[in-house]
Specification:
alpha/beta; 12 helices; Rossmann fold; globular; eight-stranded mixed beta sheet; 10 strands; two-stranded antiparallel ribbon; 367 residues
């Protein structure tokens, strides 16, 4: 089985896509203890490396992953995007922006057969040209670097319009020639709407359901489609939390159905709001059942003020969506366990790559 390491792994959107594409996710590098907790639960046999990437050497990472140089097939990761996001301040001195270069340093130090890095479209802004150029120079001519690939998740079978840039490269001595056309969305993809994505999940959510345990709720079967198969099954071998998998399969319950308390005034506004429209106060958008979910945001971590991201409003109930509904809209399966707290669940989902997208892209390397 081909070996892969996920750097800046987060909750595991890239990791899950890799596992489903047939890779052995032998290690995941993540410094956020809450994301690490979630990733560890869903990937119990993966080696988890709690290290600052800027201080991690390629040799150390390979050793911790149990690999020798030359044994790594792929290095994947989503370097922090806050410094490149148009909703941020775009500070060129933001230390998180320098982590993009450290990803490529690790590529040069570990010599994988290929690499794939994900980021926001804003990274292509000309003011970040030097950051990208400096990062790519670390490849030292060993790799063929494809033109940046713009990926809109809804075109790959996910129910969200989340759009990201992927930087893909390969060693021509180890992998046959790749082109950007190979990673374009397939023409036969059936769009998945919000209504289809949320099928079978509980609609009535009580605001007092705040704990991890109270978030476990019965679900009903989905109509069999390509999307529903990704949501209800396709569990890679030796993946998943055993206790949660048992509860999901035997009790027909799904986790993450935690509620949010709204005032009567807010409920009235949400109820009166037309689908697809934004509430003028909360800035939350009411989901259109026949459309796609807008890009889910992550909010900020504790070191940046712990601000919650704006969450979409359910299209039939005057409330914001639950973590499980957010996971569905991002393309995560129901058996995938979210963080035990609502805030960290939303933050981790908002920071993640849709596993539907990552599986498709990663399945193209060894055709």
């Amino acid at each position: 089985m081909k070996k892969i390491i996920d750097v800046f792994a987060g909750v595991g959107g890239l990791s899950l896509g890799a596992a489903r594409a047939g890779f052995d996710v032998c290690a995941a590098v993540e410094i956020d203890k809450f994301a690490l907790e979630t990733h560890s639960k869903n990937f119990p046999l993966t080696k988890h490396i709690d290290k600052d990437v800027s201080k991690l050497t390629g040799a150390e990472m390979l050793e911790l992953a149990g690999l020798k140089k030359g044994e790594l097939d792929g290095l994947i990761g989503g370097p922090p995007c806050q410094g490149f996001s148009p909703i941020g301040v775009g500070d060129l001195k933001d230390p998180r922006s320098q982590l993009f270069g450290h990803f490529f340093r690790l590529v040069s130090e570990t010599s994988p057969a290929f690499f794939m890095a994900e980021n926001v479209p804003g990274i292509l802004n000309e003011k970040y040209d030097k950051i990208r150029e400096k990062a790519f120079k670390k490849l030292k001519g060993t790799y063929v670097l494809l033109e940046p690939i713009k990926v809109k998740a809804s075109e790959y079978g996910a129910p969200t319009i989340r759009t990201r840039i992927f930087f893909i490269g390969y060693d021509p001595l180890k992998i046959e020639s790749l082109t950007t056309d190979l990673f374009k969305p397939p023409a036969d993809i059936k769009p998945v709407t919000v209504k289809e994505a949320l099928e079978g999940l509980p609609v009535i959510i009580k605001p007092e359901w705040k704990s991890e345990e109270s978030g476990w709720r019965p679900y009903t079967a989905m109509v069999k489609t390509t999307f529903s198969k990704l949501i209800t099954g396709r569990i890679p071998k030796k993946m998943g939390d055993p206790d949660s998998l048992k509860r999901y399969r035997e009790k027909k319950e799904v986790s993450g159905c935690m509620g949010t308390a709204h005032s009567k005034e807010v409920e009235a506004r949400y109820k009166a709001l037309e689908v697809g429209k934004q509430d003028p106060v909360s800035k939350s958008t009411k989901l259109n059942p026949a459309g796609f979910c807008p890009t889910l945001r992550a909010g900020t971590a504790s070191d940046k003020g712990s601000y919650q991201a704006v969450r979409p409003i359910h299209y039939t109930k005057p409330r914001v969506i639950t973590p499980r509904e957010a996971a569905r809209l991002q393309g995560f399966p129901d058996w995938f366990v979210l963080h035990r707290t609502k805030w960290h669940s939303f933050r981790q989902i908002g920071n993640s790559v849709s596993p539907i997208v990552s599986e498709y892209l990663l399945s193209k390397f060894y055709k």
